[in-house]
Amino acid sequence: LILIPRLGIEGSALATSISYFTLMVLSVNSTNKFIKTKIPLAAWFKTFFASLVFIFIIYSIKAALVLNVWLELIISISVSSAIYVAIVYALRLIDITEIKKYLALLK
Length: 107
Fold this sequence. Notes:
The chain is mainly α and 107 residues long.
């Protein structure tokens, strides 16, 4: 509720993300007490890093382009998605067979 008046809908999204993250941490901790599982922290941090790059690229492209809103959306999502997939592949979170499988779903 603190972020919403200051940041509007973006504050609401940020507050929701923070609450979901907090619940995830609490759930993982309580689950780990009963069921000993290996928590993939490295994979989570790599995915978080790739997501931050994705968001940064979208904002950068949006700031650089002055086009039709829909054209900006298509360009920024396309470029950011391609870079996101490249980063996730470089960090070895997915392999080439998974990429091919997801590309086949788009056809």
